[in-house]
Amino acid sequence: MNCELLCQDATDLLVKLIETPRTSRNEAQAADMLEDVMRNKYGMDVQRDGNNLWCIAGDYTEGRQTLLLNAHIDTVKPCDSWTRDPYTATIEDDRIYGLGSNDDGASLVTLLQVFRFLSVKERAYNLIFLASCEEEVSGKAGIEHALTKLPHIDAALVGEPTGMQPAIAEKGLMVLDFTAHGRSGHAARDEGDNAIYHALDDINWLRNCSFPKVSPMLGPVKMSVTIVNAGTQHNVVPDTCTFTADIRSNELYTNTEILEYIESNVKSEVKARSTRLMSSMIYESHPMVQRAIQMGLKPFGSPTLSDQALLRCPSMKMGPGQSCRSHTADEFVCFSEIRHALDTYIQLLDGLAL
Question: Which of 38, 104, 238, 242 is 20 to 30 A removed from 118 (C-alpha atoms)?
């Protein structure tokens, strides 16, 4: 299959994606468009559940290892500081501007072409392509649901903007809501029990706590208090103070272990919004990582979250574009990055033995 044609198909499809609004939980129109292109232009046998689309290469064989190629359809909402129309694909020299061009349109359209290329070639593994929804909000209707419809997955390549360097570890995420309790009273008298002061003790503990296990790739568990709320007026001692902490876990702790340790060391009530977004890691000895290293690529640990957090198999994150452009005004990706990604993916996966 001609790589020049595949590259042109990728860029043409990226233009259509940019010009089809697809914010999280509103991906139906984009999923319709993708399904039509995959089925009627590319001749693929597409399956769909909600706004998730997937295709299984026709030579699927029971007992073989199965590799998943995954990227997400959805985008965040555009911020107010865009100077271009976020829903118009604006081409300037080597760049294509538009919402979701970098995160995650370029990876999506490129991995789709890689699937087309590899699905008609002899491989030592089964191959599945999945375009999933709700990644930006870690929604339960996205990859987590789609995986229940797919055959067993042994390894995954997740497309996200990494400059085509392989992220072999990724920090997990847990958001905790705390409530410190006191007793109200008049601020002018020595009355009440100020909940803010109780919260400050716990906040100070979170600030200074260091988990002993430090990941060589991801570093330490990182805890940041990001929201604090208390009080109703200046002359009333507050009886409650609430605060929120962003917890970024490494692969050496489960989110549940971190939660239990925090609960045992603070006085505030603690509620986790979710413990399901786990840290992930694939060993350097994995054949896919070894092939990447042989190609001169440099494995690294990623601080940002992706759908890897919901995979329960070894996975590597790699894609065109740069993470620093994601969720920013005037987001763009370069045509040359898409072409380089297509060549790199094919070199990585063609002939791979899982």
Answer: 104
